[in-house]
Amino acid sequence: MTLEIPEVVINRLPVYARALADLAARGETVVSSQALGEMLDVTPAQIRKDLSYFGRFGKQGRGYNVQGLLAKLREILGIDRQWRVCLVGVGRLGQAIAEYGGFGPQGFQIVAAFDANPDVVGKQVGGVTVRHIDDLDAYLRANRVDIGIVAVPASEAQSVVDRLVNAGIKAILNYAPITAHVPRDVTIRHIDPVLAMQSMTFYIKRSESSGAK
Amino acid sequence: MTLEIPEVVINRLPVYARALADLAARGETVVSSQALGEMLDVTPAQIRKDLSYFGRFGKQGRGYNVQGLLAKLREILGIDRQWRVCLVGVGRLGQAIAEYGGFGPQGFQIVAAFDANPDVVGKQVGGVTVRHIDDLDAYLRANRVDIGIVAVPASEAQSVVDRLVNAGIKAILNYAPITAHVPRDVTIRHIDPVLAMQSMTFYIKRSESSGAK
DNA sequence: GCCTGTGAAGGATTTCACAGCC
DNA sequence: GGCTGTGAAATCCTTCACAGGC
């Protein structure tokens, strides 16, 4: 029905949306694929092609209406609403996530947090009281949660992912350094700064050996 | 000379290396591309093809020697050595990064941290004393730093990136929610949980509208 | 018999290039 | 004249499939 939209395209849309929000904040009202492409190091053709999967949003000779396109993208992505997020793992990393102020303004509300450590359970982090991990399933049965954030040690991560999946959660943001398995109808994204650095070193090494300054 | 290796391939190698380290820790001595692929949700052919860019590491009929392949990958990626990292931005996020214990064991040593806020300058985080951002250039001139981590507010991020680039840094890990520009000989990776979530909502939305249970 | 390494085929994604519209 | 939307071409990446070695 919906002709299949490449995942790479979906992954770029939030980047476009962010740039458009920026332009809007700066008072810009129109932008061309050329100009947007320069902001984002993306070719204009790519932007136009990506958008063409969803409709025709531009005007020839003019470009795109910033507010209009932003609204469209927000709707397409579903970021025009509030999403309920739960956090599993409230160690150092989990606490930083809970207290990171960047999710709320984007519509991602952390509604619950869980941990196994009794020293942490009952504490207040980022506006919620930490519950015991044993209450996870009951909580998810009783409350709508759209996205799970996993911030537990690697050894626990797959089993936490499994519990989230079994409770019907369809989107998981995993900070644990493992490749977690999920069924095909569940979306998972991995945040792993170590992997990111480990791929960069390949290029540093190379630049040192060849054209070192 | 070195025939061009696709960046996607380079990005997968650290994942392979992590899985191999896992296998080694569990005492496994050999692994087939089949078995490794199952661990990582990757096709065996893809693993073999990826590795074939760098050499012939396996034995027909047997598979790969876990320790041997791991050592090779570590050498290829350059993660067999220590890398010197500096952190710019020691707000909440920056502090969490400085105190995150996951970098050191992987060979990424944070050797300096910088911030503009006088309340933070002089404080001790993650084993280093925070310096004033005005000392960044002098520090980079006097000390080898391989990788810069940017954890400043969006509004400051591009200018910090520029300063790192001008000081000759060839790899940047950017946590700020912007698309930063770098010259082609500089590698940059973006860590942005919000973008990750914003692409997942597209799929949640879809799964809700279609086969919702 | 099992599994690698790899050309060749297939598929996916990006870029080109231009008709059409403002 | 400037810029979108889009088929077609080009490029890039993945998968197939099998020869060859263990």
TrEMBL record, chains A, B:
InterPro entries named among the record's database cross-references: CoA-bd, NAD(P)-bd_dom_sf, Rex_actinobacterial-type, Rex_DNA-bd_C_dom, Tscrpt_rep_Rex, WH-like_DNA-bd_sf, WH_DNA-bd_sf
Domain CoA-binding: 78-179
GO biological process, one term: response to redox state
Listed Pfam families: CoA_binding, Put_DNA-bind_N
GO molecular-function terms, A-Z: DNA binding; DNA-binding transcription factor activity
SUPFAM superfamilies: NAD(P)-binding Rossmann-fold domains (SSF51735), Winged helix' DNA-binding domain (SSF46785)
Keyword annotations: Cytoplasm, DNA-binding, NAD, Repressor, Transcription, Transcription regulation
Compartmental location: Cytoplasm
Its job: Modulates transcription in response to changes in cellular NADH/NAD(+) redox state.
Subunit structure: Homodimer.
Descriptive protein name: Redox-sensing transcriptional repressor Rex
Record organism: Tepidiforma thermophila (strain KCTC 52669 / CGMCC 1.13589 / G233)
